[in-house]
Design goal:
The chain is an alpha+beta fold.
Length: 684
């Protein structure tokens, strides 16, 4: 209960003014309105007056004895002896550690338990810094860092659960933030295998894992998404097995930045196929390093040079041709060259030095989901950073749960999962989406609330569309989009050549188009997935779009524009590019005037009389101040008056009064130049 200063002054045989002076001197908190203080402060003042103005350190030392008694009760432990702050804090405190990791806040009690510093001493140190607290008081990071420096303890802030907006963004880099370099440790690379159907993707993975996956799958086409980890020459490598490029792009469209290296499998006998081109464009757009595995080298019709030549047409240039893409001849069937491929992965991994912090709160990405008998909704996950452990509550997209079990690809139970580790996770409330980001939360309740918020957001996103034309136009106007990405589907290769040549003629230093994928035939679901991930516009020329694909495009907010005349297509693209140009500012000179009289002056504003000698003056015009033929300042014309009448414009020759605002004081005889700035949209 607060104590009135008047009552305290009477008890101490002092005055209220003297007590206030002492409060200000030691920066102690007090209630100004009713002139009262907390009992702890009152005791400090009493001790101060009773020790003949002794030092605050001595006063705090004496008060600690009483504070300690209350703290002992609350902590239910015996405190032996009484500390003497005449010794250094380092010497008098029995420290448990010289390093403390904390979240955004920590209570005094928890701080005492973690550091071994007596809670009374902590409260005393806080008082000396003008902070009145008790054992349950929450202290922020900056305060703790300041106080702990007195005890020689280094404080570091722990990474916290992301905000709902960050989780909604599904952006791994934003969610993880930045870790200190000393906390980072090497992690295994994460590899995605891509390529044309029947070129041997699954057989290659089967050979690497030494497990028969193909035999259980219909037609040799992968029917699921999964993740596996192998060890090659004491180095671990994590592999993702995707059933198609749509799945890879679907993960990217949700912000997943999971793959470190993409392996493009191309048949040495069949060469580059349309799906191969898709894989190349997906990898390029994701900015993922490529390794080409030229498969089926055991066949008599194998022609690796032909494959290299075809890949070079798509700017995939092999290292032995002066390019940057490693190309390894292999046979997934016989195992020839597979060791060389793994060596190349390890080498590229060593060059790029993939690292993560295993000690931070874990962040994972969902690779695949399904419902498993006996386990319910499950998800194959890969850990981006941190270490996932059993029992931890989490939110993943609009699902939530607690880590019930972790199973590796061989069915072994795991207690924890480090960075780049892959496992089947059970304990989900529902099946999330591929590419959703999993993050551990502080409690089950927090996980559920976050999931509900994300579910509501996704419902609204479904209704409104996220990357529709209005969104793209908005980004253009904001200046955040300088490259207009296009996915072009045409009836023939000749039509595409004509379109690409016409687009190449639209040249400008600031804006451009980029065809991230093209093909012959109708717009497919894969095209929509890539447009969703990349924020691209789909251009269809003389091709039909299936109603189901069109519906998916509308649901995802992807703009599909259909054309039958090439010049209409080029005109539309030209208008888009024009909208991407930064508008230009054009100065328009209005008129000149001369200062004849100063009527009123105050800070940054003046009222002066002018003689308009040329052109006109406008209200709100900008004013250049000229003295001795040199511009000495700039201001603004706030008001314009002709006689007793306020006007918006006056032409020469005329006399008038103006209200001028600026950092320069006008003087009689100075010349003024009125002008305005016009924003004009540029065009190509």
């Amino acid at each position: 209960m607060a104590i009135k200063l008047s009552v305290l002054a009477e008890d101490l045989n002092s005055s209220v003014s003297e007590l206030k002076k002492m409060l200000k001197q030691y920066d102690f908190a007090w209630n100004v309105e009713d002139e009262s203080v907390d009992p702890d402060i009152a005791e400090l003042l009493e001790q101060e007056l009773g020790t003949n103005k002794s030092s605050v350190d001595e006063v705090v030392d004496k008060v600690e004895i009483n504070l300690e008694r209350e703290i002992v009760k609350s902590q239910r432990k015996q405190v032996a002896g009484k500390s003497n702050v005449t010794n250094s804090n380092k010497q008098s405190a029995t420290l448990k550690t010289d390093f403390l990791e904390m979240a955004d806040s920590i209570s005094v009690k928890e701080l005492s338990e973690k550091t071994g510093i007596n809670a009374a001493k902590l409260i005393g140190e806080l008082m000396k810094n003008g902070i009145i607290s008790n054992i349950n008081q929450q202290l922020d990071y900056e305060t703790v860092a300041l106080i702990m420096s007195e005890f020689g303890i280094v404080v570091k802030r722990l990474a916290q659960t992301s905000s709902t907006s960050e989780l909604l963004s599904q952006d791994i880099s934003q969610i993880m933030g930045e870790d200190d370099s000393e906390d980072l440790e090497s992690r295994p690379p994460i590899i995605t295998i891509m390529g044309h159907v029947d070129h041997g993707k699954t057989k290659l993975l089967d050979t690497i894992r030494n497990a028969n996956v193909v035999a259980s799958e219909s037609g040799g086409i992968t029917q699921h998404i999964a993740a596996y980890q192998i060890k090659h020459k004491e180095k671990k490598i994590t592999f993702l097995d995707t059933p198609g490029h749509e799945a890879f792009t679907e993960m990217r469209s949700r912000g997943a930045k999971l793959t470190d290296i993409a392996i493009l499998v191309v048949s040495a006998a069949e060469g580059v196929k349309p799906t191969t081109i898709e894989a190349i464009n997906h990898a390029k757009e994701a900015k993922v390093p490529l390794i080409v595995a030229i498969n089926k080298m055991d066949l008599d019709t194998a022609n690796p040079d032909k494959v290299k030549s075809e890949l070079a047409e798509y700017e995939v240039l092999p290292e032995d041709w002066g390019g940057e893409v490693p190309m390894v001849p292999i046979s997934a069937l016989t195992g020839m060259g597979v060791e060389d491929l793994l060596d190349t992965i390890v080498l590229l991994s060593d060059v790029n030095q993939y690292k993560a912090n295993p000690k931070r709160p874990p962040v994972c990405t969902v690779v695949e989901t399904h419902v498993a008998p006996g386990l319910g909704p499950v998800a194959t996950i890969v850990v981006n950073a941190g270490t996932l452990e059993l029992g931890q509550p989490f939110v993943v997209g609009d699902a939530y749960g607690k880590v019930k079990s972790l199973l590796d690809d061989k069915g072994n139970k795991l207690n924890s999962l480090p960075p780049s580790g892959a496992a089947l996770l059970a304990g989900l409330s529902k099946t999330p989406h591929a590419g959703d980001v999993l993050q551990v939360t502080n409690s089950d309740k927090e996980a559920r609330l976050r999931a509900e918020e994300i579910a509501m957001h996704r419902k609204n996103e479904f209704l409104n569309g996220a990357n529709n034309l209005l969104e793209i136009v908005s980004r253009i106007k904001s200046g955040s989009l300088k490259v207009l990405k296009l996915i072009v589907k045409t009836d023939t290769k000749g039509s595409f050549d004509a379109i690409s040549q016409s687009l190449a003629k639209i040249k400008h230093d600031e804006v451009t188009t980029k065809i991230i994928h093209y093909g012959v035939g109708a717009v497919t679901q894969s095209d929509i997935a890539m447009a969703t991930a990349s924020g691209a516009i789909v251009i269809s020329f003389h091709t039909e779009t299936d109603p189901n694909v069109q519906k998916i495009a509308e649901q995802r907010g992807v703009e599909v524009r259909n054309y039958k005349i090439i010049y209409e297509l080029i005109d539309d693209i030209t208008q888009f590019l024009s909208g991407m140009l930064e508008p230009e500012e054009v100065r328009i000179d209005l008129g000149k005037a001369e200062v004849r009289q100063i009527f009123f002056t105050k800070r940054k504003e003046m009222i002066v009389g002018l003689k308009i000698t040329n052109g006109l003056l406008k209200k709100s015009a900008k004013i250049e101040v000229v003295k001795d033929d040199e511009v000495i300042g700039v201001g603004q014309l706030l008001g314009l008056q002709k006689g007793t009448e306020s006007v918006t414009e006056i032409k020469a020759p005329n006399e008038c009064g103006i209200k001028f605002k600026g950092n320069i004081a006008l003087e009689e005889g100075m010349k003024l130049q009125a002008y305005e700035i016009e924003i004009r949209q540029r065009s190509l």
